[in-house]
Amino acid sequence: MTSIFARSARARVLFLWLALAACLSLAPGCSPAAGRDVAADALDAVRQAASSGGADAGERPSDSEEVRVARAVDGDTLEISPGVAGHTDVRLIGVDTPESAIPGETPQPLGKDAAAFTARALEGRTVVLTFDEELVDPYERLLAYARLAQADHTHNERLVRLGLAQVAIFEPNDALASELYAAQDAARTSSSGIWSLPTRQQCRLADRGNGIGEGSVAC
Fold first, then answer.
1. Domains parsed from the chain with CATH numbers
2. Most buried pick, 92, 122, 171, 209, via CB within 10 A?
């Protein structure tokens, strides 16, 4: 559910844009400078709403939070306890694992493998969640990198290095993009996971601009 903070931020954005429209088209005495000020306020409100991600009480959590993984929903989605900023679902940043459960369809190739790997690696264990610029996605899931306390690499990177995920960067959450792409190059070179699948199976995956998946040149 969208928080009160998110709704109020969006209402402020709408008000400011309406004020801008009135200033530019309905009020002859409105100066260009005033119009620019209203536009700047609207843009700041948009950025504030996006960066807050609808966090409860209008506050972001600290840069990292230690939580317990209650369940691996699939390869790249977790349920955590306790929640962070009122959210208990986490979507791993920068990666896209094959779907393990698609209503009315068979799972994508290696989807169940990716989900099983994440379950074995993280379920019931304590992880450190690290956040990027945007905190929450449109489905109200926290966006985070997850790392076991003593691990050298994030689980996000491990998935990519094993070929159980492909890189999927959505700006502005790109803090670990270089590490993830390096891991993907290694997986591709060693033909690990999805990179070992025949083309017909690769074409069932999502196209994230990595030369693999439906819509890519090979498909």
1. 4-58 (no CATH), 64-202 (2.40.50.90)
2. 92
